Amino acid sequence: MERFVYRNPTELVFGRGSVDLLSEYLPRLGRKVLFVYGKGSIRKIGLYDRVLVAARTAGVELVEFPGIEPNPRVSTVRRAREEARRAGVEGILAVGGGSVIDAAKLIAVSHSYPGDPWEIVREPLRVTSALPLGVVLTHAATGSEMNANSVITNEETDEKLGWAHPLAYPLFSILDPHITRSAPRDQTVYGVVDMMAHVLEQYFHDARNTPIQDAWQVSLLKEILAAGRKVVENLDDLDARETLLLAGTLALNGTLSLGLRGDWGVHAIEHALSAVYDIPHGAGLSVVYPAWMRYVAPRKPERFRRLFLELFGTEDLEAGIRALEKAWRELGAPVRLWQLGIADEARFPYLAQKAVAKEGATTGRFAVLTAEDVEAIYRLAAMPLE
Amino acid sequence: MERFVYRNPTELVFGRGSVDLLSEYLPRLGRKVLFVYGKGSIRKIGLYDRVLVAARTAGVELVEFPGIEPNPRVSTVRRAREEARRAGVEGILAVGGGSVIDAAKLIAVSHSYPGDPWEIVREPLRVTSALPLGVVLTHAATGSEMNANSVITNEETDEKLGWAHPLAYPLFSILDPHITRSAPRDQTVYGVVDMMAHVLEQYFHDARNTPIQDAWQVSLLKEILAAGRKVVENLDDLDARETLLLAGTLALNGTLSLGLRGDWGVHAIEHALSAVYDIPHGAGLSVVYPAWMRYVAPRKPERFRRLFLELFGTEDLEAGIRALEKAWRELGAPVRLWQLGIADEARFPYLAQKAVAKEGATTGRFAVLTAEDVEAIYRLAAMPLE
Known about the structure:
homodimer, alpha/beta, Rossmann fold, Dehydroquinate synthase-like, alpha domain, 2 domains, two-stranded antiparallel sheet, globular, ADH_Fe_C (chains A, B)
């Protein structure tokens, strides 16, 4: 293990019916709170009304800021920050999935920052204070509800970058499996892929002596896949929804990377894609991961063999990759770029430059990849399916 | 899963050489700090001197309170609290194992409490404030370094009771495997048994739909046993020490009981023993657990079969219990009361009453046991070994 410091102060409020507790938690955010949400799906499931009722019960005034888009944009954060400042809110309530939470984190930490929010994305150490942030999660996927990470897109520069700061942990996050049951099929599947990808990014590491972390990573992957298979059979399967909801949080709350540093190259390669094409992050991941594996596994096979043996009963690299593709295809996720309508191979060099831009000239850690490597991975992701 | 709220604010500082960071962390406890430790083993390994140097570097004044005993006593806590009040300290530094930390927690939360500290042990909700508590852990076992639990003995009443309060979480805990390497063989083995017992107490639950928790519990048990076997081969095995150090923390920092409530009857049955006989907690656990299993497994076999299959490749109840006994005996732990010099069967009814006293008339949750049940378990723990 490598030396580490770990502290996760988020209060997790989990379980069937837990959204009823919102009125008890809301006052922790202040008397006037910016209520941030997405494109209105929370209205369809009645959650919007429940939030208003909770605020009335709690005596908390809400200032609404709807319209956070998937792959949330820094321009939206700018507008939200203006609204928060104008209204004089004391805290932020994010009701939605990872995109809404990620945007809310940047609103919270940039509230009293004098410069542009994008400066924080590029240099998170600029953060010195944050408004308190509460979350009601509607979708199991990103883990943003119990970590300090956020991913923001700059549509002017075609950049999609992750950033993190200790002040970006939510104060509380309410996770109710009843609510995630309303997530539609494709979004549910992309959530499953996303959380599996988070575990995989941590599984591919070079740290020594990590037997507990390795075992927990592999068993979490197994349980996510098992619950994912159940939920695509029956989107109303509350047990499977509940398992996925906890899994998404545990996949990225820091537990699985105690004492190790994961790869995260696949995320960079995917972010370059979804910054330009505005595809769902999970769909991009299920396309990029097999291609990344085909490129990396022959060069560094040991951890791949172990993973595939545990998950699919094979140590053969190509057989393992195909088994993962098969599992994701059976869930309904794409595994090639052309399934997402991306066929313009001439743009691969541009995308590859984007993927390696933040780190300098490479991305990834377990597999350190240059722009040329990333281009080769995009080409592998464009292959025909046999 | 059952509905739950989870928040663990302790900052974990983990890894080889991490004790060097003490001078950076000490000022968080204040300018004048009560330095609590045990019987002086920290002097032998040079840790005492390192603490003094760190305090000098940090400009923090230490007020020493040595002599915390294993199975720490409320009378000792009373004296420490007097000393803390007299000296006007602003925080507590605990350097030691679970006993030192548990005592320090009660000192911290009772500092401004007007009544006797034992009242808090009996009714933890009396706590309204606490001094900040920092920890340097010397021994992998109890998990007290990253939870809000404490166990205190009242020698006047032969009681040994656990209590917990959210204000009892350490502010920070420094875990350096180099330091745990000095733990002697028997203490090391009892630590291994203790952390396995913590996982088992959580494994034996009645909650539905807990596939992730179950998988993580079982794999943690496997990894603790594997590292335990290595460390008794070579007490200097730094990798095994490091694994056990993280395992002890993860075994009882709340992760494994998200959404479920464990049994904890074996702990109550053992606490009655070690309150009266002053035996090491881990040695008591390795004696009580097989007896508890022999009593409970035939009545409620399903989770036992699954456990034994995963750990020892058998679904036979008696074969599984014997395999666990064999594993613990090979580590060097006792599995019968007479191995601890306890042969007075006439005291079993008295002990059994102690075991069920706190909860009312029963102990345990997965297996609800009356005093008569507990007596029968003590008798099973007194059986000859074939």
